[in-house]
Design a protein that fits this description.
By secondary structure, the protein is an alpha/beta fold. It has a domain at 29-108: 2-Layer Sandwich (Transcription Regulator spoIIAA). It has helices spanning 36-48, 67-82, 94-102, 105-108, and strands spanning 13-18, 22-31, 54-65, 86-90. Strands 1-2-3-4 form a 4-stranded mixed β-sheet, covered by helices on one side. The relative contact order is 0.17.
Length: 115
């Protein structure tokens, strides 16, 4: 889907690869107030579908994340727990890892962190 926002030069979004037991959601670009609603919708749909036991969110392609992007990840974790789905974060490069650690968010996902 093309964005009409001319200020958004960098493309962002999510690619999903799923099978019956697991799914990998690879986020890329800027996950911010403009892109996080679409990412949220895709994650919720993925978690509410005949849900896999494990969903990994790969953040290695994320160049920027703001509070709305972080809130989207926390909401996804809450939904995953309600669905009895294990939600893992992976691909946390140094800057994101430090941010998540400093804000205490890392501890919420501590069971599934993959670097």
């Amino acid at each position: 889907m093309l964005s009409n926002n001319s200020e958004s030069v960098e493309k962002s979004g999510m690619n999903i690869v799923a099978d019956e037991n697991s799914a990998l959601a690879s986020l890329y670009g800027r996950i911010d107030i403009d892109s996080s609603p679409a990412v949220r919708d895709q994650l919720i749909a993925l978690l509410h579908a005949p849900h896999p036991r494990t969903v990994s969110i790969d953040l290695s392609g994320v160049t920027h994340i703001d509070s709305s992007g972080v809130a989207t990840l926390i909401e996804a974790l809450k939904i995953a727990r309600n669905c009895k789905t294990e939600l893992r974060l992976q691909g946390l490069h140094d800057r994101l890892h430090r941010l998540f650690e400093a804000t205490g968010i890392l501890s919420l996902f501590n069971e599934g962190i993959r670097r």
